[in-house]
Design a protein that fits this description.
Blueprint (H helix, E strand, L loop, with lengths): L2 H54 L4 H24 L3 H24 L4 H15 L1 H7 L4 H30 L6 H24 L2 H10 L3 H14 L6 H92 L19 H58 L3 H27 L12 E2 H10 L7 E5 L4 E2 L1 H20 L7 E7 L5 E6 L7 H13 L11 H13 L2 E6 L9 E7 L4 E2 L31 H11 L10 H13 L41 H22 L15
Parallel strand pairs: 2-4
Antiparallel strand pairs: 1-3, 3-8, 4-5, 5-7, 6-7
GO biological process, one term: phosphorelay signal transduction system
GO molecular function: ATP binding; protein histidine kinase activity
Pfam families: HAMP, HATPase_c
């Protein structure tokens, strides 16, 4: 605000100061040139005296002495002009006049006669010298001094004209009248009258009367010269010489006074210009300092509250508001009325802005608190709905298990299996809703879970489990508090892999131990794959846990995976299976840290579970079994509860007979040529199988589905009987056992 006026003021003041300094510099230069100009005036007077002697007394010793005096003065004038550094035009005029003087002398010495032409030559030289003063004063660019200098130059020319008259009258002598000389003298007298009129216009009033008294005899002199030309009587001419000498001396005094006044004026003007420049410079500096002081005061009154407002805005944007939002997200109560106002007082614009910012800050905190409360209410609603759905799904699974236990029809049993898988999928979807609402599914501690059971449980969680192939399952087990969440993670990844891969392609599920003692599980598919940008975005969401947004419902599987993996320290990453191929596919790598893995699958005590996001007391439903699929129960219960197997078979007798036969020597018959004879079947061991005859091909070319279904039903009946013997005797599977879905 203050910069532009200050710059304009400085520019204008600087221009004025520069102009005054330039004027002072010019006046100072003119003042330094005045001694040389005064010498030029003296030289002009000497040249006039030389003219009079050269015309009136040519070849006289007095003329020689005058020429020497003029030459000495010329040398001095040239030195002074060079030292004073006269303007170029003025110096050229001086050099030209002095050069013409030397030429005129040489011309007069050659002719040896005093003529009118010589007076004209001296007159022109004196006029040129009289112009030096006005030309030098003109450099000061002052009209008043120009007028004074012009008047001084006219006085010099007037004196020169009188010297011409004196020289011509003296040359006329007392003899017969020389009309040529008298005519030239008359012309000079007439020119004197014109010059006197010019001088009168430039002289000040205090010396005008004196000048008129000096030049008052001009009319009488003109009359005497005219009478001499008319009558030829020159007796009155010598009487004019005394008046001319006296008046010329008076003109010289008047001219000297004018030059002194001019020098004084130049000095005064120079001092005034310098004083004005210094005064204006001081005024500008003082005004600038005052403006700076005022600017500092105004800036302080403006900048201090602006800085406070700036600091408060940065603190609110970078520290206070984020911390408040984090507290709100963490469930802490925050009062928007406790927000401190910005420490800026006043009713001006900045104070009003500070108050408005404080109001905005409080409203932002209030809005954040309201949004958090709304989010909490929505989360509680989701949790309530999810718990109710979970309860219904658990009841449905119990009912399906009872139906499966009593079912004898293989076809209906298969349909019940499919319904069981769908119900399990619904249960996982309910758990996803709980995670989406910010809670965590309820888990029951069943002890460590082996890697094989972990992979089978994850496979049983998906509907199209037949498309999943388990490649490898290393030894080891997961701690109980992490097993259910890892199963959930793998199930979501398997679901995605099955959904985005062709129906005829298998999805591979493999696991291996990591270098840190952890477990690396990979879900490999050959499906559509993902674009690099989408893949990077998905990995970022998996790493950061992502936030709830409208996009969450579209990619709820990845959201749930990230939320479940973060508390356990499990790392999930996606990468292309076959980069560049038509069906590149995606490989999902799940790294379980070594702290969650037991090398031998056994542990006396399981460590405290990893800290999970707290769930409200009313949001914790009754614990439900995790491993309920029938398939897992068949695999883990069927083989685990059988007695020690008997590996004997009828083929053992054949092997023992073969061992005895190899210990007895065999008689070898040879031919006449000494070669052993061979007999078909002679080398067969006792009890060896005889060659089989090809069985007739099955006309249908495939197995009967009813036979396969009956076979499965018999197996299932046997399993039920085994459960009845090893379980609680009611023909139902023990609680907590995984079942196929």
């Amino acid at each position: 605000m203050l910069l532009l006026p200050v710059v304009v003021a400085l520019a204008l003041a600087g221009a004025r100061v520069r102009a005054e300094l330039a004027e002072a510099s010019k006046l100072s230069a003119v003042r330094d040139q005045l001694p040389a100009l005064q010498s030029t005036l003296d030289l002009t007077a000497l040249v006039e005296d030389e003219m009079v002697l050269a015309v009136a007394s040519p070849g006289s010793s007095e003329l020689g002495r005058q020429i020497s005096t003029v030459d000495a003065k010329t040398t001095a004038v040239q030195k002074q002009a060079e030292f004073a550094q006269l303007p170029t035009d003025t110096a050229r005029t001086l050099d030209t006049a002095l050069g013409r003087l030397a030429g005129l002398r040489m011309a007069g010495a050659a002719t040896g006669s005093a003529t009118v032409a010589m007076t004209v030559g001296y007159h022109d030289i004196a006029v040129d010298l009289s112009r030096i003063l006005p030309e030098s004063i003109a450099a000061a660019d002052s009209s008043a001094m120009d007028t004074t200098a012009a008047t001084a130059g006219a006085l010099m020319q007037l004196r020169t004209t009188r010297a011409v008259e004196e020289a011509l009258i003296r040359a006329s002598g007392t003899g017969p009248v020389n009309d040529t000389l008298l005519a030239a003298a008359a012309r000079a007298a007439a020119e004197e009258g014109v010059l006197a009129s010019q001088v009168e216009r430039g002289l000040p009033q205090n010396v005008l009367g004196r000048f008129r008294s000096i030049t008052g005899s001009n009319s009488n002199r003109q009359a005497v010269l005219l009478d001499a030309l008319t009558t030829g009587n020159g007796s009155r001419l010598p009487g004019l010489l005394t008046a001319l000498s006296t008046e010329s001396a008076a003109l010289s005094d008047l001219l000297a006074g004018q030059v002194r006044d001019l020098a004084a004026t130049v000095g005064e003007r120079t001092n005034e210009a310098r004083s004005s420049a210094l005064r204006d410079t001081a005024l500008v500096l003082g005004a600038l300092l005052g403006a700076l002081a005022i600017a500092l005061l105004v800036a302080r009154s403006l900048v201090t509250p602006v800085r406070r407002l700036h600091a408060a805005a940065l603190a609110a944007a970078r520290r206070e508001l984020p911390e408040t939002i984090e507290k709100v997200r963490a469930g802490e109560s925050v009062s928007w009325e406790s927000i401190e106002p910005v420490p800026v007082d006043g009713d001006e614009e900045i104070g009003q802005l500070a108050q408005a910012f404080g109001d905005m800050h409080r409203q932002a905190v209030r809005l954040a608190a309201d949004q958090a409360e709304l989010r909490r209410q929505v989360s509680e609603m989701f949790m309530t709905l999810a718990r109710r759905n979970q309860s219904l799904v658990e009841q449905q699974l119990t009912l399906i298990e009872d139906l499966e236990a009593d079912e004898r029809n293989p076809q209906r049993l298969e349909e019940l299996f499919r319904l069981d898988h769908m119900a399990t999928r619904l249960r996982r979807n309910g758990e996803n809703l709980q995670v989406l609402a910010g809670g965590s599914p309820a888990r029951r501690d069943h002890g460590p879970v082996s890697t094989a059971e972990l992979l089978r449980a994850a496979t049983s969680e998906v509907t199209d489990y037949r498309r999943v192939t388990i490649v490898n399952a290393p030894n080891g087990a997961l701690r109980s508090h992490a097993a259910s969440d890892v199963v959930h993670i793998l199930a979501e990844l398997l679901e995605n892999a099955i959904r985005f891969s062709p129906p005829e392609h298998k999805v591979l599920l493999t696991a291996d131990r990591g270098a840190d003692g952890g477990l690396l599980v990979e879900v490999v598919d050959s499906g559509l794959g993902m674009q690099p940008d989408d893949l990077a975005s998905a990995n970022q969401r998996l790493a950061s846990g992502d936030t709830v947004s409208p996009e969450t419902t579209r990619r709820m599987g990845l959201f749930v995976v990230g939320r479940l993996a973060a508390p356990l320290g499990v790392t999930v990453r996606l990468r292309p299976t076959h980069p560049g191929a038509k069906h590149g596919g995606i490989t999902a790598s799940v790294h379980v840290p070594g702290a969650l893995v037991l090398a031998d699958g056994l542990a006396a005590t399981d460590p405290a579970p990893v800290r999970r996001e707290p769930v409200p007391a009313r949001a914790r439903p009754a614990a439900t079994p995790v491993r309920t699929p029938i398939f897992d129960g068949v695999v883990s219960g069927w083989f685990a509860t059988q007695p020690e197997p008997d590996f004997s078979s009828p083929a053992d007798d054949s092997w023992r007979a073969a061992e005895i036969a190899t210990e007895q020597p065999v008689a070898v018959q040879v031919t006449s040529a000494g070669l052993p004879t061979r007999r078909p079947g002679a080398q067969l061991a006792p009890g060896a199988a005889m060659p089989r005859q090809a069985a007739a091909p099955d006309p249908a070319g495939f197995r009967d589905p009813n036979a396969v279904r009956n076979n499965l039903a018999r197996h299932y009946n046997g399993m039920r009987a085994a459960r009845a013997r090893t379980g609680n005797g009611n023909g139902q599977a023990p609680q907590g056992k995984a079942e196929p879905r």
